[in-house]
Specification:
The structure is a homotrimer of 361-residue chains. With 361 residues, chain A is α+β, with helices and mostly antiparallel strands. Chain A folds into 2 domains: 109 residues, Rieske [2Fe-2S] iron-sulphur domain (Rieske Iron-sulfur Protein), CATH 2.102.10; 200 residues, Naphthalene 1,2-dioxygenase Alpha Subunit, Chain A, domain 1 (Alpha-Beta Complex), CATH 3.90.380.10. Chain A is built from 5 helices and 21 strands. Chains in contact: A-B, A-C, B-C. Chains A, B, C: This is Aromatic ring-hydroxylating dioxygenase subunit alpha. Chains A, B, C: Keywords: 2Fe-2S, Dioxygenase, Iron, Iron-sulfur, Metal-binding, Oxidoreductase.
């Protein structure tokens, strides 16, 4: 009989007591980006999502953005379809109005003494072109810091903002980026680059993997050349000089490429924000910073190539993680057979920092 | 902590023992419109729906329309794909034939003595361009009257027939029309019109709300001018002269605009017919009658403007009730916080006249 | 009261202990076609399905096609997205490689001593332009013969290969073809052809029905004339001369038209391969062989007409069986009222040869 142990008879996932990693919900007690600043004009409101919760972001003509539950207390239609007046938003349907605190401050056809309950408000911050909310326990928002967005504010770097909706659990995104053996998949874009794993590090809520790469075939693509600022020699003395460090610092992720003692040539900050209640889709917010080379204007001129290059890479990654999610859906659970220790540790970290499904308060 | 009571922790709906209004099924012991007469040519058949029941309407070349269950007794394919011959319809697949009573009158390859059971028949009537069926207990059809279709047959009025499929429970439609505070939503189309609630009336199976309107800003739109037959003065002496009366006379709804002692300038009859078995979609059949002004031909000339105007209004209404339904789906139930007494009474009426889900015989 | 027994109150299906025919799963201990040979080029791989099982077909540049479970053992993404190298396929994501036996033979970043389990392999054969797999107990594959594909290899015939995905349980396909009373449905294409049932035969795993046809109206269509090789006279002496024999030889079906003592003028072999796990969709693989007339080149010249004719017939059949499936979905089960004995026997055969849902090992 020519059958080998199939996935159908595979043992359950190795997470131990944590259960199926794809059923672990993101921990809401962090600041999550939910929109780019440029998406929300003064005097306007837009609707966004975190883990199935609809959130209205409101930017008054004067003053900071604020965030309310995106369901009118009256009939649950989106407040983000409404009108911004001063420091309040008025529901488009019957005109109920809410202030920054979520309190209902006017029902046009009702006495002021009878005003009904309002809606939930979310702590909200804006920084470096991103709007963040704190979907968890609002009392903790003051003590949990906003993430540091790498080189975004550093004039020595040029930053690309990118992102898409991806139809998978956020954990697939973390694993994809940290396991550089998936370089195999990008061979057409990158040529044959053999990763060498240098080691890992971990701390509370953090894990980091380090790699070098040697080109074993193919030409260096122009997009990659731009990242490194120069066309590298393929000879042995240059191989393994640049170190790539990928770090999950829950719930964010970063990837840096740098030579010892030098500033990173590339510095990526990225977050995967669950969209639906089951957290099987996510919206990506990525900030890709490239160190400006010495020749002024060179990076700007070459920017369209870099954009196209990174888009192609990102499309391949998106396709594969969505296929992983589709397999999970079909099999009704996680059948991964993970053999790479740093990814095993990453999975344990994500399970430990998240919330098991059904355990939400 | 800056959180206010959210919908997640809201109390359940206030219907009391009736439960969730959106789970109340329509009462089948009424005449429901299911098609426009013009949709069904002589010698043809079409398929329609009431609350998940597929119904074949058959119009013989001579004689009245009749209505059968739209599933052949043999293999359950739609009879409405078949051929009309005399006073019968023949299934398109193997040619089984059914008469007006639903009885199977021929199977081409079977002896007449062995004919199988037939299909259900529905009482069916046609009036003023609408085809009605009685989906409930057929024994009651004789005693339950067809609805009176307002001014449709009155030559002093011109009537527009309109309708669409709308993805919401029929109760959202009744509430939308009766709560004229939603005038706020149509501000772009109508200008600022402030409704004043004059009072309500009720009876068995009936509830009625009366309003006047004062224009508080913006210009009178041409569509509205047509309805009122003349451009009204905005001064105080004209304000609050026209009365709008909205009535749910289960399961239909009407809206009239008239001045005391005069005929209505506008008279709308409308029905919302559940399509799927869970009754979370409906098909609208609306008859909008406008009184002809004294100048002959004026209304006909202006008709395209009125059509466009009412289409825009209806589109806004459709979008908002579909958003209400979407919120109900996401929340898994009704979280409405209704504060307007006439709407509270309307909800109680709809619950009382309908059938709780699961209670069907 | 003008109501007749409706399908809602119909008795359950007549299959007796077998239960609902549409819940009977196909028996996997047979050879099923899963792709046309021309779909799979040398050095390539494609993904196909049998009853919810994803299967990668791999054709090395040299050697026979082989078939593996289409999920990498690592992260369950499709191997059919990978690369064929020699006699193995390498997963596109992290480069895990599998040989013909399904064994994992390389993980580029892991020592050879630590190789993980591989994936399931399926017995696989290729014959006359079709690729078959044996999805059941592989130990039985040697003793279960491949089906005989009628006249495909016979130079006296020209064969059309056709097929589509059809959204219904495979049993509807068998019943459709065997019940020639459905000729009624093809009246527009074929003219009025009255079938006469001659008799049936059965054996283990087999049932056969025989018919003749008399033209009772309309002209013989050109497509049909081609099948019969000549334009037949409509007079009585020709009527009922050709015999049509339809046979289900589980799980395949054939249809032959021939006169006594002559070779068939038409010989169809057809299989319906379940695609999804619930087997409510199938992919058709049909081989339609037409005997070449004596005039050389005539059939080739007329071929486009025959293709168009059979496409129209097949489209009508597809539409009706999909409507049958839709009715079954809505009613939540089989309400067929089958009156034709040979079809009753066919249903019993399909139930007996298949596997009741839930009974899979």
């Amino acid at each position: 009989m020519n059958q080998i142990l199939s996935t159908d008879s595979m043992p359950p996932p190795r997470l131990g007591p944590e259960g199926d990693l794809r059923r672990i919900r993101s921990n809401p007690d962090f600041w999550y980006p939910v929109a780019w600043s440029r998406e929300l004009k003064p005097g306007k409101t837009i609707g966004v999502r975190y883990a199935g919760q609809p959130i209205a972001l409101i930017r008054p003509k004067e003053g900071d953005v604020f965030a309310l539950e995106d369901r009118c207390a009256h009939r649950q239609v989106p407040l983000s379809k409404g009108q911004v007046t001063g420091q309040s938003v008025q529901c488009c349907y019957h005109g109920w109005a809410y202030g920054r605190s979520g309190r209902c401050i006017d029902v046009p056809y009702l006495g002021k003494g009878k005003l009904p309950n309002g809606v939930r408000t979310y702590p909200c911050r804006e920084q470096d072109g991103l709007i963040f909310v704190f979907p968890g326990d609002a009392a903790k928002a003051e003590t949990v810091p906003l993430p540091h967005l790498s080189q975004v504010a550093n004039p020595a770097y040029k930053t690309r903002r990118f992102g898409r909706h991806v139809k998978c659990h956020y954990s697939f995104m973390h694993e994809n980026l940290m396991d550089m053996n998936h370089q195999f998949m990008h061979m057409k874009q990158m040529g044959q680059m053999k990763p060498r794993f240098l080691g890992q590090d971990s701390g509370p809520g953090m894990i980091e993997a380090r790699y070098t790469f040697a080109r074993t075939g193919g030409k260096q693509p122009i997009g990659e050349a731009l990242v490194f600022g120069q066309k590298r020699d393929n000879s042995a003395k240059y191989a393994h000089r640049d170190v790539m460090t990928i770090r999950t610092e829950y719930p964010y992720q970063t990837l840096k490429i740098q030579s010892e003692g030098e500033d990173p040539v590339m510095d990526l900050w990225i977050a995967y924000v669950p969209q639906d209640a089951e957290e099987l889709t996510n919206r990506v917010f990525g900030l890709l910073s490239i160190k400006r080379p010495k020749i002024p204007g060179l990076l700007d001129a070459a920017w369209p190539f870099l954009v196209a290059f990174t888009e192609r890479i990102f499309r391949e990654d998106r396709e594969i993680v969505e296929l992983e999610q589709a397999a999970w859906n079909e099999l009704g659970g996680d059948h991964n057979q993970e053999v790479f220790p740093v990814i095993q540790n990453l999975r344990a970290l994500l399970a430990r920092c998240g919330i098991p499904a059904g355990a939400e308060s």
